[in-house]
Amino acid sequence: MSGGERGSKALTLALLAVLLAATPIHAQPAPSSARLETVREDRAARFTLSWPAPVATEVERQGREIVLRFSRPLGDVALDRVPERLESWIDNILYGYDSVVLVPSAGVAADIAANPRGVTIALSRSPAARPTPQAEAADRAAQRRIDYFRAVTMMEGGEVRPARELLRDLLARDPRDAQSTALLGQAEERLGRWREAATAYDGALELTPGEPSLVGAKALLLYANADRVRLDVDWQQVRNADMQRIARLGGVQELGRSTSLTWGLERREVDVDAAQRADGRLEPFHGARTRLEAALVHDWPELQRSTLSVYAAPRTLGAGYTHGWRDEEGETRAGFAWSEPSFAFLEGIVGGGRRDRLFLQHEDRLSERWSLSFGAGYNRYGLAGAADLARSATVEGSLRYVLNAAGPLASVAYVLDAEYVGHREERQNADGQAYIPLPAATREVHALQVNVEDHLADYVRYAAQLGYAYDRRGRSGPQGAVSLAWEPAEGLELGLRAAHARSTARGTASAVNSAGVTLVWRY
Prior knowledge:
Blueprint: H1 3-22, E1 35-40, E2 44-50, E3 57-62, E4 65-70, H2 82-85, E5 90-95, E6 99-104, E7 108-115, E8 118-125, H3 133-156, H4 160-173, H5 178-190, H6 194-207, H7 212-225, E9 228-238, E10 243-256, E11 259-276, E12 282-300, E13 304-313, E14 316-326, E15 330-341, H8 346-351, E16 354-365, E17 370-383, E18 386-404, E19 409-424, E20 427-428, E21 434-435, E22 443-457, E23 460-471, E24 477-489, E25 492-502, E26 511-522
Keywords: Plasmid, Signal, TPR repeat
InterPro entries: TPR-like_helical_dom_sf, TPR_rpt
Pfam families: TPR_16
């Protein structure tokens, strides 16, 4: 070999050595692929990548991400199965030619150990840091505020019963929560549970003595439900018929254990030139009739009410029962009355009128302005010694819209009052002439009414009603009423009233004018 050839070969070897020295470590060919091992236990897990030949590993942490770079390629190792094999430990994995990015699950700690053949990552649950007592108290207070405003929202949306349950839970955890106690009183009051509402208001006043809103709310509640005695005296004149002087004395007495006694005594003095007797004779009547009614009213825990009544009048003794179901926006009542003294007909006043009745009624508050009521019943009328002289079905209802809720409370209402007589007994008198002992008559009265009420002063209020009644089966005409109430002293109320209507129940359609006075004593 010549000297020139030897020099050229040496230069070539030197250049090759330089190129090999400059080649990166990961560009060198790998003898084989990496091997993957995953182990999952209850409280620990492990992720391992290893090669059969030495490998260099670079580790970098970026938040929850763990970045691994190797001096050898990964090969065809099945890294895409890692999130499935280490479920709840690894949320995600990304990988490329010689790099891996692991994303451990929240709350998982990773201990990384690189070795000459690869890397092992031991996974464990991070122990939760126990919050300080101050932080725990702040969290509880924040949750109470959230729950309180949830209850307020429920109340505003008409979900009073769920709001009441939420407030009870709040008070079970913190009995000294004045806001929740006061709101519970409002919820109980809206559900008709006035005794429970008064107890809640008392509890709130113990926590915030003298709070004006609570004092006012409790005063209004007790005013509406306090024990009381009421006296009504009315004068009623039916055109071309009778004159009546009606005195009613009644009251409500709390007995305890969610039970109260209601009672009423009524006396009617009647003057009429011709009143039909049971045998068909027409004779003047100038006399008085009296009826007594007493009832035990019990409020059950789950918004139900039972009323057991007894009735008494000359030659008449009866009883009745009514059961009511309340919800957030309405009430349904069903009941019966047997041998209830009935003074709806003049013949019933004179001859010991009575009525047997089955009925169903419902009232519903549809929205802030709309309310609805309807009912149906079956009646059997009689006189002393004759219980079945007439039978009828009744349908009643009303749809009311509040025109103005602030200032004078104004509303307009459609009212239906219908009675359809299906049977009415006919008899003959001593002269052989036919007569009807109890002249029940079919009526179907559709009325449109406008009502206004407001306070003239702090202790003086008025109410007025004006409307027109159309009887599809009889005569029609205007109707109206006005009343004035004055409270001269605490617990004492005096009232005056007057009204004009038609006596459609008697079948005469005669105009009826009435006036009366009221005295109420609350104690």
